[in-house]
Amino acid sequence: MCMCRAYYFSARPTVVHYSQVNTILLKTEMEERSSAHKRKACALPLTRVKTIMRSSPDVSSISPEAIALTAHSAKLFISQLVGDSLDESHSGDQLEYKDLAHVVATHKRMAFLQDILPQKMTVRDFDRLVTEYEKQHKSVGRDHKH
Hints:
This protein has 146 residues and is mainly alpha-helical. It contains five helices and two strands. Strands 1-2 form a two-stranded antiparallel sheet.
């Protein structure tokens, strides 16, 4: 009795011996474990995510699934932000604060982070902005008095 099965790994059916299937499945499982281990190394700590979620006064209880989903979503978001920043970086494969701040300032979908990651400015530039602002508001104030 031959232990053979037909598997559809490609467009045409292939007859594979049962022992080959076990080898293929074992290899695939080992690759998945290896990639899962790599993913866990980059994962956010669930206890920290849970602590942040519980810091909201509106939250009474949090399911483990919600914590895991929030951590995974945050990881994806961070990966997207870092990827966009590296794509626009002028310093090669290094990521600097100015790269993150530039992406936040130029991408509409990141606008909610502008208070958290503002673009840096020199004191001279800040003084110039304050002076211009004061000039504009003084002239507006005079116009209203007349």
